[in-house]
Amino acid sequence: MTTASSLSRATPAPRRRDMTMLLLRIGAPLLIVLILAFVLLPVFVVTLASFNDKALLTFPPETWSWRWFIRAFTYPDFQQGFRASLIVMLWSSFIALGIGTALAIAVKRMAFPGKDLLQGILLSPLVIPHFTLGLGLLILVAQFDLDRGYGLVILCHVMLVLPFVMRSVYVSMENLDERLEQAAASLGASPLRVMFTITLPLLGPGLFGGWLFAAIMSFSEFTASLFVTTQMTQTLPVSMYNYVREFADPTLAALSVVYIAVTATLLAFANYFLGLGKVLNIEDGH
């Protein structure tokens, strides 16, 4: 009698667990869908608004046209801003790649006083607002009467994207099998040859990933660039900001769609041909 009553009292617990698991199976995907819809809704609205034929941002469009995409590609300030962004992006991403790779290897392989402090300083742009860095550089060059040319903009962008390169290369270093380097050294290879024939090729996915994210961040950087650029060196995001102060047509919506499409294409390229896990060297390539 006691055993039967105890069993009857014990049966609701598994049922509650089954009900909880069922709710999680249904609720978790639904929650993810709702979050994605919330995030992508502005993209959807901007994309449709960019095809509006009228010179006002209205949604949904009454008539459809490509005219604002044509204007986005032919507007002189956007063309100049694109060239400036391309110059700054290429210089800053490759400089950050070289410096970040060297620093990541040094932090991983070497022990020296102030190592943790150095890491904190180098990674500080991840937590410090970008406008603070841009304003600080502006005050610095004004104090010493320095030229606000491409060098200043490139320096600013290198400081901002350097943490992304360092983290990408450092993750690859964590997954690097040091026995391969030791085997090459035991066969008589010099440290320099080991570096260029073993270490760097194995770090290739991490190097590419660091450069890719640095390039995307540099090309899209606005907050700090607003303080350090001039009329001759203004990047595309700064040109877009100046444009929206004067016009209210869907040109920026069209240009934003191009931005999103190009960025998504680059990330899809990296994911399809290398795999985002391989880019960071965190998954087995076999």
UniProtKB/TrEMBL annotation:
Segments crossing the lipid bilayer: 22-51, 84-105, 117-144, 150-171, 183-204, 251-274
Assigned protein family: Belongs to the binding-protein-dependent transport system permease family.
Example of a GO biological process term: transmembrane transport
PANTHER family: INNER MEMBRANE ABC TRANSPORTER PERMEASE PROTEIN YDCV (PTHR43357)
Lineage: Bacteria, Pseudomonadati, Pseudomonadota, Betaproteobacteria, Burkholderiales
Residues of the ABC transmembrane type-1 domain: 82-270
SUPFAM superfamilies in UniProt: MetI-like
Cellular localisation: Cell inner membrane; Cell membrane
Membrane topology: Multi-pass membrane protein
Gene3D superfamilies: MetI-like (1.10.3720.10)
Assigned keywords, A-Z: Cell inner membrane, Cell membrane, Membrane, Transmembrane, Transmembrane helix, Transport
GO cellular component terms given for this protein: plasma membrane
Name of the protein described by the UniProt record: ABC-type spermidine/putrescine transport system, permease component II
Domain of life from the UniProt record: Bacteria
Pfam family of the protein (one): BPD_transp_1
